[in-house]
Amino acid sequence: MKRSVIITSDGSSSLLIEDWKETYHSVFGAIQEARHVYIQEGFSQIDAAAFRVLEMGFGTGLNALLTALEAESQGKQLCYHAVEGFPLNREEIDALNYAEQLENPLAARDFNAMHQIEWEVAHPINSCLVLKKVHALFETVVLEPQSYDLIYFDAFGFPYQPELWSQAIFEKMFDALAPNGILVTYACRGPIKLAMRNAGFKVVRLAGPPGKRQMIRAHKISKETGFNS
């Protein structure tokens, strides 16, 4: 896949897959989208001093970077696993401008650490987040049952890789979540919601980030607690 760097509407960079004309983030703002979907509607919904995060689609590292900074600012301890089938090369990484765009003097430190660590080995990124990057496809990665409290699902769009939005993939993630765990994603198509529900999730539609009407937060509800939407 040939990729090129683009600048989105909020000034932050992303990547364009040229053959698909598909971007890694919203063209209306990469940082805005990541903050809204994964931090506001994901990270901030977990009321715990320590928890476990799985990211399906490490990509540029933006979601992990924002999570690391937020965890340190709140003093929360995170174990963060990120699955990626097609890692970026050094030239692409160096062209991303997140450290410059974020109003946080620690952004460059954490971003560089994330992209310098070895794959398949857990490394501390800052005082609050330990990251393990896993080089694998979504279809083949092995996830331990009930190992995560929060999943960021950030696959390419449904029109380009519908197989990644299948019931089988959501069943794998459902099993990997602890009871009352949640999954957040930017997408909100009908077939995606159906696949999630068939996998066992309670699906909630939420307001989307700039440029997108809706997104999804999916809940793995324990029988003991029930659910109120």
Write a concise synopsis of the structure shown.
With about 230 residues, the chain is an alpha/beta fold.
Q: Helical segment tally?
A: 7
Identify low-pLDDT runs: 224-229
Q: How many E-type strands?
A: 11
Classify the helix fraction into a percent range.
Answer: 25-40%
At the third CATH level, what is the topology name?
Answer: Rossmann fold
What's the helix-strand series? EEEHEHEHHHEEEHEHEE
Explain the layout of strands and helices.
Blueprint (H helix, E strand, L loop, with lengths): L2 E5 L5 E5 L4 E2 L6 H11 L9 E7 L5 H13 L2 E8 L5 H5 L3 H4 L5 H10 L6 E2 L4 E7 L12 E6 L13 H10 E9 L4 H10 L2 E6 L6 E6 L10
Parallel strand pairs: 4-5, 4-8, 5-7, 8-9
Antiparallel strand pairs: 1-2, 2-3, 6-7, 9-11, 10-11
What does this entry look like structurally?
The chain is of the alpha/beta class. It has one domain (35-219): Rossmann fold (3-Layer(aba) Sandwich), CATH 3.40.50.150. It contains 7 helices and 11 strands. The chain has helices at residues 30-40, 62-74, 90-94, 98-101, 107-116, 167-176, 190-199, and strands at residues 3-7, 13-17, 22-23, 50-56, 77-84, 123-124, 129-135, 148-153, 177-185, 202-207, 214-219. It has an 8-stranded mixed β-sheet. Strands 1-2-3 form a 3-stranded antiparallel β-sheet, with no helix packed on it. Helix 1 (30-40) packs across helix 2, helix 2 packs across helix 5 and helix 6 crosses helix 7 (190-199). The radius of gyration is 16 Å and the shape is globular. The model is unreliable at 224-229 (pLDDT under 50).
Features:
229 residues, Rossmann fold, 8-stranded mixed β-sheet, 11 strands, globular, alpha/beta, 28% strand, 3-stranded antiparallel β-sheet
